[in-house]
Structures are given as structure tokens and as C-alpha cells.
Design brief:
With about 110 residues, this protein is α/β, with parallel strands linked by helices. The protein contains five helices and five strands. A five-stranded mixed sheet has the order 1-5-4-3-2. Helix 3 links the parallel strand 3 and strand 4. The chain is globular, with a radius of gyration of 12 Å. The N and C termini lie close together (about 5 Å).
Length: about 110
């Protein structure tokens, strides 16, 4: 499933997205950036509340398909700008990580 399809099917808001046709093959939930950097599978949707500039670097290093900011976590302006420069897809939802992961699991 592509990031665009994921956003459409779960009614997720697209905050940044230059690579919406990128495939999602897995899911990872985590907020401790060093942990995510070493453990998030490539091509996964990363569910987090971390909407800062450091999360963009981690998403790039881990090669995730997208970041999903859960529970209406904010994306700061510097992070949005960096995400747009590096082509990091960022989505947003009011739902919690468990709920989104469960729905994504049923789709992939």
C-alpha cells in the first residue's frame, strides 16, 4: 500500500508529502529517537508524537515511508521545512498509535 492510499483509507491529514507513492510494508511505534533509529524497519509507517526536527533526521536514517503524528501531536515549523527539503512524508491523526497500527495491519 502507498502512503497516499494509507492516508486516504484512514482519513489521515497529509502535512508534507513529496513521495506519497512510496510503499508501506510495515509499521513501527516509538518515541525514543535513538531506539527508533536502530530498530524501525525500512519502508515502515512510523507512529510517534515526536514532531520535531530530530524526528526528520531519524526518519531519513531509518528510511521509513512516512511519519504519522498521532494524538494530534504538533509538527514544528523547522521540522516541516526540513521534511519538505528531504522528501519525508508526514501524516497526522487524532487517533492513538494502537488504533492506527491495528487499522494499518489490516490493510497491509
Amino acid at each position: 500500500m502507498t502512503v497516499q492510499e494509507f492516508a486516504d483509507k484512514l482519513n489521515l491529514k497529509i502535512l508534507t508529502g513529496d513521495e506519497l507513492e512510496r510503499e508501506i510494508k510495515d509499521c513501527y511505534i516509538g518515541d525514543l529517537l535513538s531506539w527508533v533509529m536502530g530498530r524501525a524497519p525500512s519502508d515502515s509507517a512510523w507512529l510517534t508524537v515526536m514532531g520535531n526536527i530530530n524526528s526528520i533526521a531519524v526518519a531519513t536514517l531509518a528510511d521509513v515511508s512516512c511519519i504519522v503524528l498521532v494524538e494530534n501531536a504538533p509538527l514544528d515549523a523547522n521540522a516541516k521545512q526540513k521534511a519538505e527539503i528531504h522528501g519525508v512524508n508526514i501524516l497526522s491523526t487524532a487517533e492513538n498509535s494502537y488504533s492506527i497500527a491495528k487499522k494499518l495491519s489490516a490493510l497491509i
